[in-house]
TrEMBL record:
GO molecular function: catalytic activity; FAD binding
UniProt signal peptide: none
Keyword Flavoprotein tagged: yes
UniProt source species: Bordetella flabilis
InterPro entries noted in UniProt: FAD-bd_oxidored_4_C (IPR004113), FAD-bd_PCMH (IPR016166), FAD-bd_PCMH-like_sf (IPR036318), FAD-bd_PCMH_sub2 (IPR016169), FAD-linked_Oxase-like_C (IPR016164), FAD-oxidored/transferase_4 (IPR051264), Oxid_FAD_bind_N (IPR006094), Vanillyl_alc_oxidase_C-sub2 (IPR016171)
Taxonomy of the source species: Bacteria, Pseudomonadati, Pseudomonadota, Betaproteobacteria, Burkholderiales
Keywords tagged on the record: FAD, Flavoprotein
Cofactor section: FAD
Flavoprotein in keyword set: yes
Occurrences of domain FAD-binding PCMH-type (ranges): 36-217
Protein name as catalogued: Hydroxyacid dehydrogenase
Pfam families: FAD-oxidase_C, FAD_binding_4
GO biological process: respiratory electron transport chain
Family: Belongs to the FAD-binding oxidoreductase/transferase type 4 family.
Length: 468
């Protein structure tokens, strides 16, 4: 890269806004899973939208590719540069301003570099609740959540990130700024530009700010751990609890017995909450602003479910400490996988009515074609999102890992497509699923996405090699 461009970038963001040394750049050029590692001549860290706009104008003038980056916690390689050494990393990690909390309108306006945990904290301090919650919330940023349309554990009640955003501020590839920071729940004045940029993975522009929805702060919650025999019973239990509890049902997570075995073996302090072993487990949580009847409602729902054969056993947390212990079992699966082997991950979504049939069919297909490989099946059943992973040995050779990954992806994703599902539910496409996308999206869909990309980024400078 021309050193003159680096000098001009430094003039925009200041010396503190440039990261030049190889050691200093290391956290930016490799994704946190260590699957993708690239090179960059410079990491640029602007402080505000004006500086982002100036950076983008310079990169457009010089034909320099740009990789937008938030917390770099993605699962699909969407924020890692390639190894050409020609791509500038545009990090928003200095843009951490809470611009406004409007408790009357139930909105919060933030910079894109604000950590998710800090948005949650600012909402609580205002007596409100921001529901997006996921394992990386202490390190992921709102801009990254928006760019990938992140999901998490509360989608069942509140929706994913797209449903939680009312307005955006975006710097376009040519440096122009679209200021759409309107806290409106009704606005029928044209195309939904907000929805266009959410989930675009930095390929259309740089999200620099957002207006997000806030909700009333729940004053109580109650959590249960339920043993279930079949995938069909899991889905039946979900339907039963939804019918009985309505919007009080805020989380419904599922994990297989093998997942719990892994957590108990590899996560310190993990204890099986039930006496017997069950094929599947559901973590069910109710919350409300009026908490008095929650425990009674949950007890009633679980008793009815057991009478109907939808559940075999259950325990209800008697304290916040016990509730957190149940959640740690669910949240410990990712850590346990890393310690137990090398996972081939499938972040998939299906219509909830087709989940059970998919699980039974996929389990049988993999048992036949990939005998002996354990399946790590867990996910957010309440919104149809499964993490249907397959565990390979820690010492598997790189070539064999690549071969099995391709074969497993094809087998699992073909079954997902046959049942009207998606091969990426909440982690994004990035580099991981880019080449598979054409197999599972129609020609019309791909053509429309490419037309939009060319219209907004005709020079193909925004996050090249990702998504499309």
């Amino acid at each position: 890269m021309d050193t003159e461009l680096i000098r001009r970038l430094g003039h925009v963001v200041g010396d503190a806004g440039l990261v030049l040394g190889e050691a200093e750049q290391a956290p930016y050029v490799e994704d946190w899973l260590r699957k993708w590692r690239g090179r960059t001549p410079v990491v640029v860290r602007p402080r505000n939208t004006t500086e982002v706009s100036a950076v983008m104008r310079l990169c457009r003038q010089t034909g320099t590719p740009v990789v937008p980056q938030g917390g770099n916690t993605g699962m699909s390689g969407g924020a890692a540069p390639d190894d050409s050494g020609a791509q500038v990393i545009l990090s928003l990690n200095r843009m951490r301003r809470i611009r406004e909390v409007d408790a009357v309108n139930n909105t919060i306006t933030v910079d894109a570099g604000v950590l998710l945990a800090d948005v949650q904290r600012a909402a609580r301090e205002a007596g409100r609740f921001f529901p997006l919650s996921l394992g990386a919330e202490g390190s992921c940023t709102i801009g990254g959540n928006l760019a990938t349309n992140a999901g998490g554990t509360a989608v069942l009640r509140y929706g994913n990130t797209r449903e939680l955003a009312l307005g955006l501020e975006v710097v376009l590839p040519d440096g122009r700024v679209w200021s759409g920071l309107r806290g409106l729940r009704k606005d029928n004045t044209g195309y939904d530009l907000r929805g266009l940029f959410i989930g675009s993975e930095g390929t259309l522009g740089v999200i620099t700010g957002a207006v997000l929805k806030l909700y009333a702060l729940a004053r109580g919650r109650v959590t249960a751990w339920v043993g279930v025999d079949t995938p069909g019973a899991v889905v039946g239990l979900l339907s039963h609890m939804q019918a009985l509890c309505g919007e009080r049902l805020t989380a419904f997570e599922m994990m297989s017995a093998h997942c719990l075995d892994l957590v108990q073996a590899h996560v310190s302090g993990a204890v099986q909450p039930l006496d017997g072993r069950h094929r599947y487990y559901a973590l069910v949580e109710l919350s409300d602003t009026a908490p008095e009847a929650l425990t009674e409602l949950l007890e009633q729902g679980l008793a009815q479910a057991m009478e109907a054969g939808l559940a075999d056993d259950a325990v209800i947390a008697a304290s916040e400490t016990q509730s957190q212990a149940l959640w740690r079992l669910r949240e410990g699966i990712s850590q346990a996988q890393v310690r137990a082997g090398k996972a081939v991950k499938h972040d998939i979504a299906l219509p909830i009515s087709r989940l059970a049939a998919f699980i039974e069919e996929a389990d049988a297909a993999l048992a036949e074609d990939f005998a002996g490989l354990p399946i790590v099946n867990f996910g957010h059943v309440g919104d149809g999102n499964l993490h249907y992973n397959v565990l390979l040995p820690l010492d598997v050779a790189a070539a064999e890992y690549g071969r099995l990954t391709a074969a497993l992806n094809r087998r699992v994703h073909d079954l997902v497509a046959q049942r009207g599902g998606s091969i990426s539910a909440e982690h994004g496409v990035g580099q991981l699923r880019r080449d598979e996308l054409r197999r599972y999206k129609s020609t019309v869909e791909m053509d429309l996405m490419l037309l939009i990309k060319r219209a907004l980024d005709p020079d193909q400078l925004m996050n090249p090699g990702k998504l499309l």
